[in-house]
Amino acid sequence: MSKLLLVCVLFSFLALAHSELQCYNCTGLTSHSELQCYNCTGLTCDFSNPSNRHTCGKGVANIEAGCLTFVYKEKSGTKNIQRKCVLLNPKEEFKCTLPADAQQESCNVCKENLCNSARGMTFNSFSLLAASIGSLLFVKLFS
Fold first, then answer.
1. Hey, CA dihedral for 75, 104, 64, 24, is it positive or negative?
2. How far apart are CA 24 and CA 36, in angstroms?
3. Contact at 8 Å (CB) between 31 and 64?
4. Handedness of CA 116, 41, 13, 126 (dihedral sign)
5. CB 70 within 8 A of CB 96
């Protein structure tokens, strides 16, 4: 019985491990615009067309993906946030290019791929349920 519980715990934690946070490329955001985001988890990066879905760094040895977040304020006072998927290894040159008459607020790279909002999480109900059951079983098994 304890082996069965241990297997259930293992599978529940594996389900949680497969629930990943995604990095998104969100261009031209303002406080009044809709999010236009593109999934940035995968194998390679394609920067040729910003309207394309980007894929970065997942599952390839020695390649790490990150998310470049660039925040600036236009002369009119409008705040803009731009995000794009970048490779950390091999290292790229991270560029935050200001439009004319704009003021930079920040230019950061999130190594952990956590630049997106909560809506980008792929934690589905199954993985959350599995993690909850796994936690309960873990406590029951080792208490």
1. negative
2. 9
3. no
4. positive
5. yes
Task: Note the pLDDT tens digit of each residue in 112-136.
Answer: 444 443 333 344 455 556 666 767 6
pLDDT tens digits, 23-44: 443 343 333 333 333 334 333 3
Looking at the whole model, is its pTM more than 0.85? no
Three-state DSSP class for residue 68? strand
- In contact, 70 and 81? CB cutoff 8 Å: yes
Spell out the domain ranges in the chain: 1-20+121-134, 22-115
pLDDT above 70 as % of the chain: 23
The answer to whether 88 touches 110, Cβ cutoff 8 Å, is: no
What are residue 52's phi and psi, to 5 degrees? Answer: -80, 155
Indicate the residue type of 94: F
The pLDDT value given to residue 133: 76
